[in-house]
Amino acid sequence: MIKSSKEYWLEFFDENPKADELADNIRFVGAQSKFSRPDWPLLLTPIMYTQSFVTEQTNNLSKLFKLIRQLPVKLFDSELIDFANAVGFTNTELHTLYNKQASNIGLYPCRWDIIHSSEGWKVVEVNVGGALGGFASDAIHALYDESIAQETSSDPLLKLSESWQSQYSHISRQIKKTLEQLNNPILVVVDDEKMFFDSPLIANSVASALAEKLNIEVQSIPHTGLQSICTQHEGQVLVFEIFGYNDVINSGISSYQTYFEGLVSNKIESTISPLSELFMSKAILALLKEATLGDLLNDSEIMLIDSLIPETYLVNQDTLAHLKSLDHSQWVLKAAVGYGGNNVICGWETDLNSWSAQLEVAAQTDTPLHIVQKRVVGIREPTISITPKGLYVECDQPVVLGIFMLEEEFGGGVIRQSLTGSGITSSTNQASVGVMRATQV
After folding, report:
1. Which domain of life is it from (predicted)?
2. For residue 352, what is the enclosing H or E element?
3. Residue 218 CB: number of other CB atoms within 10 A?
4. pLDDT surpasses 50 at 1
5. Residue from 142, 117, 159 nearest 398 by CA
6. What are phi and psi of 37, to 5 degrees?
């Protein structure tokens, strides 16, 4: 009998005597390559899609991101600060930085957070910039490839054709072009000092992945280490920014003096667009949905937005009465600017009085901007995970896809699945993490 890839991996980790060895290897290389941490559960069974489906969906996501990039022009007549205020970046020091650096051209890599519902893929947020996480999964994919090769060599009737995309293949090509244009360059991954010492996982993962893809040495450092790098190296320094300008303000602009002076003198070359953080505000999704009600978008753009984005509203005094009238069990309250599942309240996990009180607080003018988004009920995915203690766990909760892209280029996918049924599916909330692979049929 011909098995699908999904059936094969479920059966493999349930019955195959080689399952323990592969699971241990996945845990080891996941931690070694900075894809995961030893205290995270790991999703052993990859999530599978056909290649044609992935191509269709990522083509739609590429079109949607072009619309997102056009929002300052379409909705705010190119007034950057008006756009920044509208999506929750209201700090005047930030505005000064944005205006000074707006002409600097950089990359806008992104990771779409998506739930696969009965109506297709639904975007619940988009993360833009250097701090996307989940990049270094090549070694994990290689383990799956090796396992398939071993099994098919001993079983001629087993026919599996799987492929995958490296999360840094799309970015590394652009970086290579930049390096070729610079004078005796080195590449350095830089994160804000506080973030770096609190959790260096992302910066180290990015540096490791870029070093492998580009076959060069890549350091990961806190921003306060830039001065030493620039002093010691006789040539240009290409900086891959994990930090955003919010971090610059929080740490103090003076601590980033080496970075900004280096940009002016051309000692430092930037990789990530300084405006990228503006486009990761969750308020973007609310603005897009609101724009479908006006005359600024054409029919195909409206259809694209409605097919991909669930109902989403800004929370303010004008919308408060309407939002309080909705069935709270079908909605999610989120801070517009945030990550890691922080400042997220699932209506079905709280009572009506608490929900209404939270809405009222979020609607206050002195509260950071929030959105309310319609709950997306995902398709259940049967999986097998392994806990940090080595226990196998079967689960059939919906998954959150992390789809990496740079403009039209697809950069692979990672997966998160709550093992407890929690509405917040985040690695910081002990969700299991794994990878997405593609089949030809």
Report:
1. Bacteria
2. helix 352-362
3. 20
4. no
5. 117
6. -120, 155
Q: What is the CATH number of domain 311-375?
A: 3.30.1490
**87 neighbors 284 (Cβ within 8 angstroms):** yes
- Could you state, in order of their start, the residue ranges of all structural domains in the chain? 1-57+104-164+285-310+377-441, 168-272, 311-375
Select, from the ranges 39-48, 341-350, 351-360, the one with the highest average predicted confidence (pLDDT).
Answer: 351-360
| pLDDT, mean over the chain | 91
For residue range 45-83, list pLDDT tens digits in order: 999 999 999 999 999 999 999 999 999 999 999 999 999
CATH code reported for the domain at 168-272: 3.40.50.1760
Same topology, domains 168-272 and 311-375? Answer is no
CA distance 140 to 30: 7
Three-class DSSP category at 180: helix
Query: Taking the complete model, does pTM exceed 0.70, yes or no?
Result: yes
Strand order in the sheet with 331-335: 312-315, 370-374, 331-335, 344-346
Cα-only R_g, the chain: 22
